[in-house]
Every structure is written in C-alpha cells, then in structure tokens.
Amino acid sequence: MSRPRYDAIFFDLDGTLVDSRVAVIDAVSAGIHEALTAAGETVPPIDAQMLRAPLGKPAPEYFRAVLPETLGHLAGAVKEAATRHEVAALAAGKGQLFDGVLEALDRLREAGVLLGVISNAQAPYFRAALRYTGLGERFQHSECHEELPPDAASPFKTTLLRRALLQLGSAPERLMMVGDRAEDIQAGISTGCATLGIPFGFGDEKELAIADRQLDSWGLLPAMVGV
Question: Which domain range does residue 112 map to?
Fold first, then answer.
C-alpha cells in the first residue's frame, strides 16, 4: 500500500460530517421559543435561513446572531435551551451523518491516517454528537470551542487546529483541514495545511472557493488523499 498524501486529516463537525441542517435548526427554533417564552418575551418570527446563516460561528456568537439586538441579553438562555433540545434529538437517534462518512473514515484509519474533529459548537452538543453517531471512536483527537482555555485566541477554529497539530505532532504540509464554512478553510490556510471544502453543508461553492479543492461525495475522499 502506498503512503497516503497526508499523515493527519481534521474535520469540522456540523455540515461536514453531521448533516444537521434540519435537526439543529429545529432545536435552535425550539430553544428560542422556550427561552423567550420563559422570560415573558414575545417570540419573533423565526426564519430557517436566518438560523442557518451564522452556523459555524462560536456558540456564544451564533446565539447572539439569531436574536434581535433587543433580545441579545437572552442569548445564554437560548443557548442552554437549544443545547438541551439538540442533545435530546441526538439521543433519540436523529443525528444523521452524510452518506459515506463512516466508510470513508474507516478506510483512512486503516491506511494509518490520524483523524481529528474540531468544532465551534457548545461542548454538551459536541460530545453527544460524537457519542450518538458513532463518530467518537474513530478520532484520535477531538476538541470544541467551549473546551479551549479561557485565554484562547480568536479565531477559535484556527486555535483548535493549531492545538491539534501540537498534540499529534503533525507537520502542516502533511495535514488537511476539511470543512463546510470559510472559517474552516481559513484555519487550514493560516496553519499552512491543505484544505478541502464541503459544499453540501451550510456553506456553498462560492464561500468555499478559497479551498484547495472541494468534495462532491464522501465516497471520493479516500482516493483523493491516496488511500
């Protein structure tokens, strides 16, 4: 077997590995209703696209972004409520992976490629997603924004990737970053890694034009990296 082109590959979670376009949006919508109603506030109209657009931002920024400015003080309560709904959905088996994800990851592991997952998601959701989808056992490294030290530098996705590099001891030129949003690709560029965009998640081909390449199907990934 020839040596893979990369010693390690790191992945974003939502919109990259997990097809959370429905479950997460439903959970956030439910969280907004729950938190605002509990606070005695009128729940404004909720548009799914409004909830999708900021996905990929660190959780505190995301939950502020989906609320009107006048309700920004309730972002923490919305985050807590939405997280409960997200974890409950995952526990009920509603966490869907994109077709071919597990098969591709298993082929990469069999070829000796180290795998990691990093995310701007909140920690309870991140850990539940890894547990209930079967992803967790496939990664040598996993960390999310809320698990970073308090003094961690922004942009957090870049910090997460640099910490992963240090833990696994991989040289940047032998590593690839895979994600569906511009921040994922920028993290790879900032650390000198190869980058691969996922255009069927929350981002699109235009947003991901800065990536070295884009992936049309998970089944194509092993061959793309020489496995």
Answer: 8-17+98-225
For 93-130, what is each residue's pLDDT tens digit? 888 999 999 999 999 999 999 999 999 999 999 999 99
Task: Look at residue 116 and tell me if it is in a domain.
Answer: yes
In a domain, 3, yes or no: no
**What does pTM read for this prediction?**
0.92
Question: Is 56 a member of any domain?
Answer: yes
Among residues 39, 23, 142, the alpha carbon closest in space to that of 83 is found at: 23
Residues sharing a CB contact under 8 Å with residue 180, sequence separation 6 or more, in sequence order: 12, 14, 15, 16, 56, 197, 198, 199, 200, 201, 202, 203, 208
From the number of C-beta atoms within 10 Å of its C-beta (0-12, 13-18, 19+), residue 166 rates as exposed
CB 198 within 8 A of CB 179: yes
Residue 187 lies in a domain: yes
Q: How far is CA 55 from the centre of its chain?
A: 9
